Amino acid sequence: MEKELVERAGLPFQAIPAAGVHGVSLKKLPGNLSQLWKGYHRSKQILKEFDPDVLLFTGGYVAIPMALAGKKRQSLLYVPDIEPGLALRVLARYSDRIAITSEESRKFFKHQEKLVVSGYPIRKELKKWNKADGLAYFKFDPNIKTVLFMGGSSGARSINNAVVKIAGKLIERYQVIHLTGHLDWDSLRHQTDGLGPRYQAFPYLHEIGAALAAADLVVSRSGASVLGEYAHFGLPAILVPYPYAWQYQKVNADYLVERGAAVLLEDEKLGKELYSTVTTLLEDPKRLAQMSQAMAALAQPAAAEKIAELLLEMASNER
Question: Is 118 left (phi over 0), alpha (psi -120 to 50) or beta?
């Protein structure tokens, strides 16, 4: 998916062989280690050809081979989640500077002198959207509240299934944007045929800014992007941490819940509690406004610029 998005933006892309080792079975481990070894040599080749002044890492096991190959070069690590995962903790050892989304992340790192709070960077395309334009994009009525359901790029089956069950009831009172992801798209679109213009579903939406701007409430997983994108739009959230990545998503969700910007709904309770949780919030304008203000207060609109400035500073020091 990253390859498609990078190339769509007109940027050169080169893949690096890699595989995870944490929690991998003994049967798969040799093959994964072999992939990392291949990735290390490919990374050395790329570094020789490209000769960068500075490296930027954002985590994931695919970054490990490049970090090892480029350990003598200046590098900046950006940590999107509140709590860093295993790969990010490893990368932190090799990084000269570490940018973090929130002050809350400081407690997870030993070398405080490396840290700078940047905020979560959002794409400039998101910043062009406002409420009126977002509603117009979907041909929605500005006098009817809009709820957005998102499961991430590949989708969230439990969220999708819960939404389909209540979609008919929801559209009696609200407008619904449902981003299903590609995995469930074919089955879900057949289940929701005939719901009319108040229910709009998409497997993927490049103009995600339109949906975020149009919505009065969002229901989603709690990956790192919720820390930046929802804050930018002041968008109240019902967060459903992915149960198989519970620790990191739960920490992100708790951060927003503790600040009054979101409520948490456990994945196992989606079927029974999603409808009541959504309607309770949408029918309470005062609480919704308070959540919106709390979310907007967390926005750091210059995050991308801060990270870019750090990279340029490190690159100029290297020359």
Answer: alpha
